[in-house]
Design brief:
Two copies of one chain form a homodimer. The first copy, chain A, has 556 residues and is an alpha/beta fold. Helix content of chain A is 34%, strand content 19%. Chain A is built from 18 helices and 26 strands. In chain A, strands 1, 2, 3, 4, 5, 6, 14, 15, 16, 17, 18 and 19 form a twelve-stranded mixed β-sheet that branches. Chain A has a three-stranded antiparallel β-sheet with strand order 7-12-13, with no helix packed on it. In chain A, strands 21-24-23 form a three-stranded mixed β-sheet. In chain A, helix 14 (386-399) links the parallel strand 18 (374-379) and strand 19 (402-406). In chain A, helix 12 crosses helix 13 (350-369). The longest helix of chain A has 21 residues, at 129-149. Chains A, B: Its EC number is 6.3.4.3. Chains A, B: It holds the Pfam family FTHFS. Chains A, B: It comes from Irregularibacter muris. Chains A, B: This is Formate--tetrahydrofolate ligase. Chains A, B: Keywords: ATP-binding, Ligase, Nucleotide-binding, One-carbon metabolism.
């Protein structure tokens, strides 16, 4: 089979104006970025806000393993399949980050015959959203250091500046730095850190903002530091939220592209899935719902993190009512959950597969706790055997859950017809009774406890002294009434990446707790979270090239 | 009179497709960025490269003073005036930098009724060129630090990494930093600096590249560090020039916008005018020349720096043959050169004006040394008196130089008809005999000597020990055969900003010499050059806002 980039470059893209027409939009509703990318003009909202919402479908997965699940590929392929069976459908995905493209080979725009295009553009500068977020993040940093330098009227404690600089590059040397060196004219020396742009709170804010004014309000709320009396200092105290909003005036507009089979794709916003909530923007999802009968979207990592945060954070703030969940699993990953080593996954192994099904089972249970109907999608690999597929099917039948084999990577939309038909059947017959899992006004510990016990299946939570102190302080400052954003390993239901399957009897250890007051959630850290990746020994950048005809080589 | 932004927001812009049609381009030749901005597709070059070149006119100025000269305004207004008298004209300007917009109020897109639009976009993210340059600059930085971290096969001396990180923000705290702290996983600790993006060598390279392959070649040539044996280490040694070129594949395409009077404006590239050459891109100028009968462009600072570098660097590499020069002066600035204080410039003062004319006189002489005909434009202020104007006119007559009063700030194109007509007359009657001032194969000191004596009117050059050593090393490594890029104060013909008028008998002191091997010039530093600005006590960012209708407030 051809490589992803060969398939993408062979795509017969339609002009984006035609894709927009499929959604009932005219050229005047678009801001074009070349022929195949557009942003939706903000004026469109007034025209469509009275439309009935389409049905919202979340694609999530079992806990990922080194074998890969292909959640984005299934999302794109399912959208294409829905289109093939005559449904008016859009997909909603996150925007990929530029930095990692030059690290390890591989983009983030689906795969095989289920990709979004133009994939090189989407993986490079796209419509400039990432760069706008970087600039906004760093304008705030400059304003903080300038305030300190110019007299520090707010008495910012230079040892407690929480706001970090950002850059969309994999650069370990920027993880920990000292700025302001070289004497009085260069500001006040202090320790600082760079995040990769997708880890910036600005990204999370952009994705949770309802509109431009809500964006400004949230930007103003960001807690950038503590002062010498231990009070939070916010971005609005620096009078910088207006300028920050201006820098994001275009970034906030949803982007429209298409899949290989010309299905409309909204690709907008891409927050980290650990220290943030890992979903595309609320605005893009709302536009898609008003313009389509079905919207297929996805969330980062497995259902214990991605779906939980999609429901408890994104749906809470966006007042979204998801109608169904597609839970993606691969036989290879299930076998790893059952104990298989990575190098024997190509061989049939019924026993480990059966053992590994407990991870799928728990994730099905979890979706049920939110009141949303679920269908399992087996993302097919060429090495899967019929015997193995039957095992998953019969277990799902026992659980009363529909399951479909999905071959969208290999075949595009036609490979997902079975899944699309089962999904439509569920949407027509099973009513979603969506509810969030906890009341945000509960104490921080009570909320964490619910997530750990209900979703992860743990027996309790332990807190380090650092976490205890952070929770106490947030409580004292009345900053604790926000949803929780768990930062946990994606590989296990527990906080130990090596405990695969369905671990039992474990406790989760919370190491630290932080607030993202602009985004509007409390970040709960379990274990080390890397917010600035590094490049490998031989970065893919060394193979990447462009020739005199403008052809791109070595990108994926 | 209205403010710049009020005038700009009231502009009757034509769709950029119509502006392109004025140049003979169709929609298929453009990559649209919304309705009013476009990039020219690279395929266009093959269609137009056989066209006859239009006439190239450089707008430059006397040495700037605190009173301002309005070079960009005259460039835009002259373009509009040429259009008014029926000429097929384009203008070529530099792209403004985003960072300074949030520092001190004021954009960089002309003024009054002679502006380029959409001016907010041009001053903010525009078509993303600055962000692409930032990303490219910092990918190279990441590659350098990653190489060191991963074993340092090239034996890069961490004390002699020349390449600096870049960001498009005014942020003094980033001027001098230490990176790579926090232990082994975070790379090797070393000192580093951030430049503002327009000061990055990538910007100069983009502006001097003839095409995509020349760009790649130049990027590969960048000297990023010295190794432990004192040999230069280049970007190509890190195998990173292909990925860097890919990041710039769109940035290299010229941008097309329009003036308030719908004249085509190519705004592309904006290198620093001190450590770089301060002109828009060669590619944009070449496209404009093939698509118009007249091209009006400008260069940074006064003619001693801007025009000298335009001729000796840009025209040399671009094989451009300028046909005429417009030398801009204001009576206010001439009075400052004659000794007036800033607060009495509004009053008539014939004596100081007469004294200050020697600056204009020297700049006229200098243009003559390049063999290019010159016309003087008096950029009119409402406080100018008739008596004063006559003094300038009669001195120009004595010198055999045409002069025209220019009211384009107040009146737009109609205010520049006199200038346009005189310019056309010169273009029709005086043949340009353009030549560069020196052979690039001369020694570094010989080239500096020519510039200082011929252009600045100095009597000699002194070198600090540091500069002597740098020149010796570049010679030993056969890296000295490049044009010179002088970094000198813009306020004086000498290297002392306080010596106004036409200083005599001075020597210039060279403090350091560096190579920009990718851009292809030797940077000669006289005095301190600031490559990362800071924010003022009350940054304009505090006043900038955007309201719920998307209206921008406080920007200019």
């Amino acid at each position: 089979m051809k490589s992803d980039i060969e398939i993408a470059q062979g795509a017969k893209m339609k002009p984006i104006i035609e894709i927009a027409q499929q959604l009932g939009l005219g050229e005047e509703d678009l801001e074009l970025y070349g022929k195949y990318k557009a942003k939706i003009s903000p004026e469109v909202w007034d025209k469509i806000k009275g439309n009935k919402d389409g049905k919202l479908v979340l694609v999530t997965a079992i806990n990922p393993t080194a074998a890969g699940e292909g959640k984005s590929t299934v999302t794109v392929g399912l959208g294409q399949a829905m289109d093939k069976i005559g449904k008016k459908v859009s997909i909603c995905l996150r925007e990929p980050s530029l930095g990692p493209v030059f690290g390890i080979k591989g983009g983030a725009a689906g795969g095989g015959y289920s990709q979004v295009v133009p994939m090189e553009d989407i993986n490079l500068h796209f419509t400039g959203d990432m760069h706008a977020i970087t600039a906004t993040n760093n304008l705030l940093s400059a304003a903080i250091d300038n305030h300190i330098h110019q007299g520090n009227e707010l008495s910012i404690d230079v040892r407690r500046v929480l706001w970090k600089r950002a850059m969309d590059v994999n650069d370990r040397a920027l993880r920990q730095i000292v700025v302001g060196l070289g004497g009085k004219t260069n500001g006040m020396p202090r320790e600082d850190n760079f995040l990769i742009t997708v880890a910036s709170e600005i990204m999370a804010i952009l994705c949770l903002a309802k509109d431009l004014m809500d964006l400004k309000e949230r930007l103003g709320r960001i807690i950038v530091a503590y002062d010498l009396k231990n009070n939070p200092v916010r971005a609005r105290d620096l009078k910088i939220q207006g300028a920050m909003t201006l820098l994001l005036k275009d970034a906030i507009k949803p982007n429209l592209v298409q899949t290989l089979e010309n299905v409309p794709a909204f690709i907008h916003g891409g927050p980290f899935a650990n220290i943030a909530h890992g979903c595309n923007s609320i605005m893009a999802t709302q536009y898609a719902l008003k313009l389509s009968d079905y919207v297929i979207t996805e969330a980062g990592f497995g259902a214990d993190l991605g779906a939980e945060k999609f429901f408890n954070i994104k749906c809470r703030y966006g007042e979204l009512k998801p109608n169904a969940v597609v839970l993606v699993a691969t036989l290879r990953a299930l076998k790893m959950h059952g104990g298989s080593a990575k190098d024997v996954l190509d061989k049939e192994n019924v026993d480990t597969l059966k053992r590994g099904l407990n991870n799928l089972e728990k994730q099905i249970e979890n979706i049920g706790k939110f009141g949303v109907p679920v269908v399992v999608a087996i993302n097919s690999f060429l090495t899967d055997t019929q015997e193995e597929v039957k095992i998953v099917e019969s277990r799902c039948k026992e659980l009363g859950v529909e399951v479909a084999l999905c071959k969208v990577w290999e075949k595009g939309g036609p490979g997902g017809i079975q899944l699309a038909e089962k999904l439509v059947d569920i949407l027509n017959t099973k009513e979603s009774d969506f509810k969030v899992l906890y009341d945000e006004s509960l104490s921080i510990k009570a909320k964490i406890d619910i997530i750990v016990k209900e979703i992860y299946g743990g027996i309790g939570v332990e807190y380090t002294p650092r976490a205890e102190k952070a929770i106490r302080e947030l409580g004292e400052q009345n900053l604790d009434g926000l949803p929780i954003c768990m930062a946990k390993t994606q590989y296990s239901l527990s906080d130990d990446p090596h405990k695969l399957g369905r671990p039992q009897g474990f406790k989760v250890t919370v190491g630290d707790v932080r607030i993202s007051a602009g985004a509007g959630f409390i970040v709960v850290l379990t274990g080390e979270i890397m917010t600035m990746p590094g490049l490998p020994k031989v970065p893919s950048a060394e193979k990447i090239d462009i020739n005199e005809k403008g052809e791109i080589l070595g990108l994926f």
